[in-house]
């Protein structure tokens, strides 16, 4: 009898405790618009998704299996949270249904689901296995049937997951480590479901201190992937961050601000699914640093064996002695790149860092992506790179150009991946490219609101028409004897983008339009002559910038140091530098930096190759704001 009484009290208290402990709204979506970038308009015949004025319509047409519709969410392991979803089954198998998915990553996820016939269950799904039930299917009178709406909630309370249906406690189980950062909705079996609300709520944010005048910047870091101080093996000891390893990292943080930093603390989190912070206390003591002095952060992180990113991102919240948030620092650590090893200072036994690192590996444009808040988050970007042609010479490094530029757009400028198009090699055919730049094409359809900024980037081969000197970019399957059908006119691209009336439009062409490859060898009859000088489109609007890797009959050279076209090398280098220093970057400053870099580099080889820009308002068009 006492046990039943205690259980009844706990059931009554759980909802109150949950709402009292968890106060920060992370996501609250009633689906009037797709503001949180949910999967939508998926081109599959067995599932679909669309946001429609207050309802997220979901369908999974297969009798077996499941489908997740999820988004990245700032839920950190160890912090209490709860997730709620409200929806109803419109049509489907009685033994299947829908629910909440959380902790989702490339290797698995967790789900809490209800079925049309009134059961609920909790599952852990793991790639390569059949998964397992954390709570086996059981009938609940709390579930509303016959197409009625239900509210599901999963809550992390300490070391337990607690589950509610329509505000009533139904079950609980021990918590498990996340697979990743995504949360969302899952459909099991053949189902059509309408979701009307989705919310994620977490513990309070740190209060922001008002009198903090210090400013910590990463001045260098070193790692150890060998044997840890306690004798445990972490990795293979080659001083590279690799998949499947545990890494001890020391980060040197220099105070470049005006005021002193006293008794600082740090909270470290990983930003990517597939990586975790291990064996570290919640608050890491950093000590104090006067202006010009440094403090050192030491922690360990593990990289999953199937981690699919090129670098590990760490987020460091710096707290003052009142545990108020002073600032947040990002640390990006590349994979498979030699990094200085942590060495022991024999004088005091402390670990130190080789601070020459940031002048070399630390700023490699292919792996170091600065964290910035100045990106064009309301932009769309089209990135095209063709290196291996069907009928034409190879465009050396064009594939790397496109991939890394795309990474800068989505990682540094923070452009949503749903607003970014990347076409490379065999996917960059004439029809695929033309399908982007026409009325009702992909460029119009990838954004659900008016586009403020458009960025277009091309790396590959170019040519000018012999008759009218019209410049063309050459797709993967281009035929230089039939340009109008198999190539894409720069003027037509410009004309279409103008019709969208964006606030700004920026074009970057890593190519020569002189009919020469990247070594300067002609692949057309008139290539590299005065007759092949392109007639580049004129720009009279104040919101458009067009930048080219070369002018006239010049080639577009490459640099093997970074495996890029020379124009793209200095474009990325400048963007990285300005983002790292939190400076705004307009077309004037960008073109000046690219020009200086290219002219100086080419002069060492007795070449005179200069980039070109058509823009009448260079100071007012910004790549970084």
Give your account of this protein's structure.
There is one protein chain. The protein has 625 residues and is mainly β. The protein contains eight helices and 37 strands. Strand 7 and strand 8 form a beta hairpin. The protein is globular. It starts with a helix and ends with a strand.
Q: Tell me, what's the shape?
A: globular
Structural class: mainly beta
Number of strands: 37
Helix content: 10-25%
Gyration radius, to the nearest Å?
28 Å
Mean pLDDT level? 83
Low-confidence stretches: 3-22, 344-362
Count of runs of 4 or more consecutive helical residues? 8
Query: Span from first to last CA?
Result: 66 Å
Main β sheet profile: 8 strands, antiparallel
Q: Which band does the percent of strand residues land in?
A: 35-45%
